[in-house]
Amino acid sequence: MHHLLRLIQESDNAPLSRIIKTSLEELGCALEGTVYTDEGTNHLFDFYQDERTAYYIAEWDGKVVGGSGIAPIPNQTENYCELQRMFLHKAARGKGIGQSLMKKCLDFAAGARYDLVYIETFETMTQARKLYEQSGFQYIDHQLGDTGHFSCGVKMILPLK
Fold it and tell me: Which pTM value belongs to this model?
């Protein structure tokens, strides 16, 4: 079994939306003020078309199993981006795919010359938080910009410079 990372295509919208929403339901995080109720989750391809954005799809044996993206933080004056919508299907977790997605996204952020990467997540997402910690992210006690995802209780940053 092996995985492949590639840029999002329009045909990825529906399977990716299902993966994101199912993951949030499994973790008890299907809440208002998260990507669960964000209409953009159903149309991710359209959002990641700017030169300073990217969304990578993870395929495992030819099937979409998740993804993650980088985009500027709304209403943030600094040159900061956000690691967004990093989710994997339950069967794809613990196989190194998340680490590959993380590296791809951080490489993109550095190449796009962002100064800092920001993440919002949940206390219950212990596997994800472990990956973020291993990647060098540090916890902060406040939100950056206006992501609209006010139900995410954990915030983390990774300076790139």
Answer: 0.92
